[in-house]
Structures are given as C-alpha cells and as structure tokens.
Amino acid sequence: SLKAGIVGLPNVGKSTLFNAVVENGKAQAANFPFCTIEPNVGAVAVPDPRLNVLSDLSKSQKAVPTSIEFVDIAGLVKGASQGEVVGWLCDFRVCSLLQGLGNKFLSHIREVDSIVQVVRCFEDNDIVHVNGKVDPKADIDVINLELVFSDMDQIEKRLDKLKKGKARDSQSKAKEEAEKSGLEKIQSALLDGKPARSVSLTDYEKEAIRHLCLLTMKPIIYVANVAENDLAVPEDNPHVKEVMGLAATLQSGLVTVSAQVESELSELALEERTEYLTSLGVSESGLGNLVRATYDLLGLRTYFTSGEKETKAWTIRAGMTAPQAAGVIHSDFERGFIRAETVAYNDFVTAGSLATAREKGLLRSEGKEYIVQEGDVMLFRFNV
Ligand code: GDP
C-alpha cells in the first residue's frame, strides 16, 4: 500500500489532526465493512460527487465511498493495512535535536511515497511555538533544510562508493555511470537549496538512483493549520497567503484545515457537522480536501462498480490493468479474470443506465491488458 508521512515542527497540530482522522474513521467504521478499524488506524472516506450520481442512476440500495487510511507510527509495526495511504507523525525539531533518533525518524520517512507537512498558521499565545512566533516560512525552511542535508549526506557517501567502481561487466558499468551522473545533477541542485524533484533526469538516471529513496524527491503537500474564523476566507490570513506562495514555487500542494475544528467535528453526529460547518461559512470538512489532495499526490485513481445492490468506488494506482483492478475487490477476481465490461463515467451518465450504454455500444469489452482509466465503471467476468 502507499504511504504518506505527516511531518512538522512540535505544537503545530499534527496529533490533533491525526486524532481527528482516527475519530472520523471510528464514526464511519460502519460504512467500511472491508476495513478493520484498530486503535491507531483512521479511515477517511474520499469525497466524490460522482458516486451519488451513479448510485441514483443505478437505483442502488447504497453508495459506498472508497477510503484511505492513516496509521500511527505505533500501529505501523504490524503494517497489515488494507487501505491505500498510511501516514505517521514525525516531529522534525525532535529529529534534529536527538540525532540518533533523528536518523531513525528520517529512515521512516524514507519509506513514504509522499510527505504531508503541517504548518502552523494559527495564533494562540497559550500554545508555545518552538521558534517563539508563528512563522510558516521559517518552519518550512527548517524541514526542507533537514531533508536537503539528509540527501546531501546520503549522496556524498554513495558517490564515494561509486568512485571505487566495482562494476565488472559493461552493463553494470553503464548503470553506475547513470547513477553517478544523476546524483551529481541532484547534488548541485541541493547545494542551491533546491529539492531533487526539481531536477530533470533521464529515465535511466531516475531508475539508477531510485534505490536511494531520496527525501527531497518525494512530493509534498502543505497543510496550513488555521484558526476556525479563518476557514471561510483563508487567504485573508497573511501566514496562509505566504504558504500559498511558497507551495506554488516549490510545486507542492496546499490544503487549509483547522485541526481544532476537525477534532470537534469528529465528535459530532453527521447532521450536526453540516450545521457547524455552515456556521463557519464553509461547505466541506478540510479533512475531505486533505484526503483528496493526498489521493492525487499519490497517483491514485478511482473506478466504480454500480448495480442495484450498491454503487461502490474503488481505489487503484495509476496504470493498473483490469485484472489488477479486479484484485482490489477480491483476489479471486484477479486470479479468475476473463474480461471486463467497461464504460467511462461520462458515457454512463449520458446513457443513463448500463443497459442503454450497452445498446449504444458505449460499453466496451476489455481484456487482461486493459489499463483502467479514472472514472471507469466496470463489470468483471471471472471464473471462480
Ligand atoms: P503536534 O505537536 O504538532 O502534534 O501538535 P498538537 O496537535 O499536539 O497541538 C499542539 C497544541 O495546539 C494543542 O494544545 C492543540 O490543542 C493546539 N492546537 C492544534 N490545532 C489548533 C488550532 O487549529 N487552533 C488552536 N487555537 N489550537 C490548536
């Protein structure tokens, strides 16, 4: 499964946000019969307006959203997650203060597919800021520097090794050369304070350096944690505006949430949530936005199954074939896969039903090689 690591300085709201995710997961547990909710696991539904449209057209008895999971570091050890996202918390200032432990934290981050950095944008004199004042740019710089230093260190060690040139045949020699040239390009970018992901590399170089799992190669989403009265018009808060600018120059995503509001929301019944959000001048929970942004960042895609019993959204990775996508529902579907009947979401909506889509020739029959597309509505044929 794919993993997202939640990082940030101490006291920025990571735990509050994470706990909101976990509470939310517990509240929704009944809707997710496919995932066991354990103490350190939070499942969040991925908001998707297409789900209800399909469900209405198919006159389904229920609509089941897809979900992604966030897992706390303690729960991570088991790692038996069925969801697509696993996140954990890392306090960066703690990382750099306690060096030995810091490296251990960083090695956890090395394994994630994307990084979610919570940045404090709320003022509250009762809550100590490690730098003495709310300063999101400084916070982002601290963490970027930490990541840059760690990558520089790793690259230096690796280049030293490569210089000894142990390759015996020409193929491994070429591979070493590609790794060396890739790393040198990245090294000079890092010296300029630029992340590895900003460097353009050949496919061969990318492949050759992949094993290093460089931290600045990973995509980042910034989560601006704001006070509740900033939720309606976040850009009125100068801190948020600054983070927006930074996120744009760093080619990173940005989501505004109020961790505190999310934590309060997670304790309310569903009907009361809408009322509370409306009173704050917003239509949707920030958790939903965060989930969607993480989903996109990780390269996840949604396909649907839709019938009278239920309409359901399923999560796959971009590039998955029809049998692999079927395997997300059940491994038997993948093993016994014969063909898939497929119609694009828009075609389904135009046709109004699966039957009409079939009559109009919009329903295609696809085989084992078919790459499932975003929004496909699928019907699998398989041998048991
Ligand atoms: P962490 O160290 O990053 O995990 O931060 P915590 O989630 O433990 O939050 C630190 C403190 O800030 C706690 O007392 C939270 O209640 C408080 N806090 C978190 N988010 C908000 C927020 O949006 N507004 C305000 N006023 N306080 C918050």
UniProtKB/TrEMBL annotation:
This is Obg-like ATPase 1. Belongs to the TRAFAC class OBG-HflX-like GTPase superfamily. OBG GTPase family. YchF/OLA1 subfamily. SUPFAM superfamilies: P-loop containing nucleoside triphosphate hydrolases, TGS-like. Monomer. PROSITE patterns: G_OBG (PS51710). ATP binds at residues 11-16, 226. Keywords: ATP-binding, Cytoplasm, Hydrolase, Metal-binding, Nucleotide-binding. It is found in: Cytoplasm. Hydrolyzes ATP, and can also hydrolyze GTP with lower efficiency. Has lower affinity for GTP.
